[in-house]
Amino acid sequence: MDLLFFDIGATLYGTDASQVLRIDRALPEDLTLAELGLPHRGNRAIVFDTPEGEAHLKVDAVHGVRSIPVNSLRRMPPTAGAAAYAVGVCLEEARTVLLIDLVETARTQGRH
After folding, report:
1. Is the terminal CB of the chain with fewer CB neighbours within 10 Å at N or C?
2. DSSP 33-61
3. In contact, 15 and 99? CB cutoff 8 Å
4. 18 exposed, middle or buried (CB, 10 Å; 0-12, 13-18, 19+)?
5. Tell me: the pLDDT tens digits for 75-108?
6. Considering only CA atoms, which of 27, 33, 12, 11 is closest in space to residue 104?
7. What is the C-alpha to C-alpha distance for residues 29 and 44, in angstroms, rounded to an integer?
8. What are φ and ψ of residue 110, in 5° steps?
9. How far apart are CA 89 and CA 66, in angstroms?
10. 27, 1, 29, 32: which is closest to 15 by C-alpha?
11. pLDDT tens, position by position, 32-87
12. What are the C-alpha distances in Å from 87 to residues 5, 26, 29?
C-alpha cells in the first residue's frame, strides 16, 4: 500500500496516498485538528477530495510516498475507542505511525 507520510507539529502521520490530490501552500482557513496537534508553522497543505469538494489539511512537512507491505499495517480495533479518522497504524522502522483517513478528518471538523 502506498502511504504519504507527513508531520503535524512534532508528530509523524500517514495516510493512504490515493486520497491525496496534491500538496499545496496552506491558507489561513485550512483545516487543523487539535487532536492531531497544532502545526508549528503549517505552511503546507495536503489537498484531498470530499463528497462536497476539495479540502485542505495544514501540515508542517511532507516526507513523500512510500510503498509499505500490508503485513506492516494494523487496523485500529473498534475497542480502542479511537476517533473515526484514526484508521490504523503502520509499523515503520522503530516507531508506530498513526494512519488517518483524510475525509473522516474533514468530517470531524464539520467540513464534509
Report:
1. C
2. -GGG---SS--EEEEEEETTEEEEEEESE
3. yes
4. exposed
5. 988 888 889 999 999 987 778 999 999 999 999 8
6. 33
7. 12
8. 75, 20
9. 15
10. 1
11. 999 999 999 999 999 999 998 999 999 999 999 999 999 999 998 888 888 999 99
12. 15, 24, 25
Q: How many CA atoms lie within 13 A of 37 on its CB side?
A: 15
β-strand pairing of 11-16 with 95-100: parallel
Distance separating alpha carbons of residues 93 and 3, to the nearest angstrom: 14
At position 57, the amino acid (one-letter code) is L
CA dist list (Å): 20 to 68, 78, 93, 95: 16, 25, 24, 23
